[in-house]
Amino acid sequence: MGNRRRAADYLLAIQDLQRVSRQVARFFVEYDVWLSPTLAEPPLPLGSFDSTDDNPMQGIFRAAQFVPFTPIFNATGQPAMSVPLHWNRDNVPIGVQFAGRFGDEATLFRLAAQLEQARPWADRWPAL
Q: Going by fewer Cβ within 10 Å, which terminus of the chain is more open, N or C?
């Protein structure tokens, strides 16, 4: 599919990404941290994102459904962290994502330290 794209399409995509990045930056003028789930569902077994011969994009589309909350911060460069603040019935950690202002990783580190003190997770391990 990449061979069918023109340079102009690429430049328009970069322009859109820059526009969205500015919108996200404007949000963080008023707020220190954004809270969201890390994943849209609990962790899945290995092979859940495999593609098939008849649908080579299946794995990518499935992954996009699985992680709808994290890509925006990867694309805009906002610092973000996922911390295991909950465990499900199978003792699998459920991540909570916090994102911060561009260049303000320090706020996230301080928040992580406070959260880990309130709900320690270093000694918790899921069954394998």
A: C
